[in-house]
């Protein structure tokens, strides 16, 4: 039986463990810099920056999901699904679909126009799953970011 | 002379006018559903969902920029640059670069790991500008969203 519950402070070590698992699966482990301390500060104190859900199957932890509200200047407030992760041995039980139903319900309850997320282009199983839900894949936008030394140079008026 | 100032409630009609201009430039006008009322509620009341800047060149309004904080489960809090728009007649004056410096400074002041944004893949002038700033283009992620009837079906447990 699946149970989806809101993460609490005591779940922080578990949450970090699963973030690391998920990053390993995505071949992005070297990008994980969050810590138990930063997760506590950003998710469980003051005005939380994210909302985390723990997925339980019977007495076992089967995965997690994380969302935050975003804003579209054209369409208004929406829900960003930062992560949805189901541990390998719990796949094929309909957990992903149930979590997406929960995420969709949350968005509708909040009056958001929709839910956005991102998927790795080699993760065909995930892509097929999202297509089956009726999601739309955006083909004409590129994602861009700047960090580190390039960010500092930009803040100082551009590359010298 | 460029002046970058924080948008205030009295700027809402101007902000909406420029959002419509920008959406027209991006060939996305049919997606604009925000109103003066929703901009007020989401940007200027309670806990604002976005931060807007008005760009002025001498006594004229030259454009706007809009940001909001986002959260990466791997890297922590970052700044999302939702829009940067410089009106056509004000291009070539270094306004974009000055705004990106302001956005970068804002991110560093807040202790964010970086700035993210999106660019239309046919907007080569913008792409070249961002490359010149040292930005990284993400090639292995797809953007996905769900809205409307598909969202309602997902919230109810998936397509029937």
Description:
The first copy, chain A, has 160 residues and is an alpha+beta fold. The first copy, chain A, has a single domain, classed as Aminopeptidase (3-Layer(aba) Sandwich), CATH 3.40.630. In chain A, 34% of the residues lie in helices and 33% in strands. The first copy, chain A, is built from 5 helices and 7 strands; from the N terminus they run E-H-H-E-E-E-H-E-H-E-E-H. The first copy, chain A, has helices at residues 12-25, 36-44, 95-109, 124-132, 148-155; strands at residues 2-6, 51-57, 60-72, 76-86, 114-120, 136-138, 141-147. In chain A, strands 1-2-3-4-5 form a 5-stranded mixed sheet, with helices on both faces. The radius of gyration of chain A is 17 Å and the shape is globular. At the A-B interface, helix 1, strand 3, strand 4, helix 3 and strand 5 of A face helix 1, strand 3, strand 4, helix 3 and strand 5 of B.
